[in-house]
Amino acid sequence: MPSSTMQMFAFILAVLGVVSATVATLLPNWKVSADVGSNIMTAISQMQGLWMDCTWYSTGVFSCSLKYSVLALPAYLQTARTTMVLSCMMATMGLCLAALGLKCTRWGGSYRSKGHTAISAGACFVIAGVLCLVPASWFTNEVITTFMDSKVPKSSKYEPGAAVYVAFVSAGFLLAAGVIFCLSCPGRRGGPLDSGSSHPDKPKQQKLRQEQLTRDQPKQQYVHAVCR
Q: What residues make up the domain containing 213?
């Protein structure tokens, strides 16, 4: 099972992954207008995100409009919306499980229970990372394919925006954290938590020890009597 330091490192990676995935989902610059064929007189920057489209004018005015119609959106954009939201939800669930599975904490049950909880958290992080990686890759492919199409006017060409790169980074964080937590296989022997009062077998062990002492007490008295 990984050390407490490695688990804390993975937990920090997971937190960064959740935050960056949430930021990437909300950012409006998944693709930005390319500067192909533009000039200084038309200093207008257009950005499109999962939920809104924004325009930056040369006068300094910044306006955005929400995408209310779901059916009017292309398939890759609808998929990106769904998978990014699911990724954030799955990663948040993984954070809750990871907090219980950390070896340095006192809650979460016995050593083996913490190991199983950590593995579940790792699985959530891996799934969240994949759910974040798929829309980022598909979205990037669609943007590049449209950009390379000669039939598309230069004014309608876009490039991948910063939100896509943030999504890729968050996917890497979540996958790395998930792999580390998935290696948290519970050992065969109990760890430090097994000797504590929170271990479920502790009362049973104390009861067996007390019964053993009770059975041995008459034998000890008999031996003392014979020796006298």
A: 203-228
